[in-house]
Automatic annotation (TrEMBL):
Protein name: Uncharacterized domain 1-containing protein
Organism lineage string: Bacteria, Pseudomonadati, Pseudomonadota, Betaproteobacteria, Burkholderiales
GO terms for cellular component: cytosol
Organism, as annotated: Pseudoduganella namucuonensis
Domain of life from the UniProt record: Bacteria
Cross-referenced NCBIfam families: unchar_dom_1
Length: 174
């Protein structure tokens, strides 16, 4: 049985955020250098920073990012299918990589950037175009001066787990 109140809340939250988004684009190095990770990510949902083109391509968006926690939402569809009729594992991988990476990004000081060194994913169950919206939640486990580690999960509105991941990221000066 679907949790209709959670689903409705997710859809309303997504619609409210979408109303503020700027056109997709890529931030300049100067913009990245001048803002903390938290300010940069908050700028996306406030319309001050363009959301990345990958979010438009894959059909997902950031719901929130706050000091070590990032939540993204997407609705898998037929455009994400592989030849065997299920959502390609790359959809979950991209959604999780984004959530765990942005969780780390939210902890960074101005002038710092990151890149993924390693991403490990466990697929629990497949997604279909009938799955409905899913959320990927990334949480930082530890963040040092050069390396950060985070974990993430993809769940539906009923709390059903589809995949989970861990990442290790390199932190560097921009």
């Amino acid at each position: 049985m679907e949790n209709n109140s959670t689903l409705q809340s997710w859809l309303e939250e997504e619609a409210a955020i979408r109303a503020n988004l700027a056109a997709t684009g890529v931030a300049s190095r100067e913009h990245l250098r001048e803002h903390t990770g938290q300010d940069f990510l908050n700028g996306i949902n406030s319309g001050k920073t363009p959301p990345p083109p990958i979010a438009e391509l894959m059909g997902f968006m950031m719901i929130s990012a706050d000091n070590g926690l990032a939540i993204f939402q997407g609705t898998p569809g037929r455009q994400h299918y592989n030849p065997s009729g299920a959502v390609h594992g790359g959809y979950a991988a991209t959604l999780l990589d984004t959530a765990v990476g942005c969780a780390i990004h939210s902890t960074l000081a101005a002038g710092k950037g990151f890149t993924t060194l390693e991403l490990k994913i466990n697929y629990i169950r497949g997604m279909k175009d009938k799955t409905g919206p899913v959320r990927a939640e990334g949480k930082v486990i530890t963040a040092g001066k050069q390396v950060a580690v985070a974990e993430g999960r993809i769940v539906d509105a009923n709390g059903k787990l589809y995949a989970h991941a861990t990442t290790t990221c390199l932190i560097f000066d921009i």
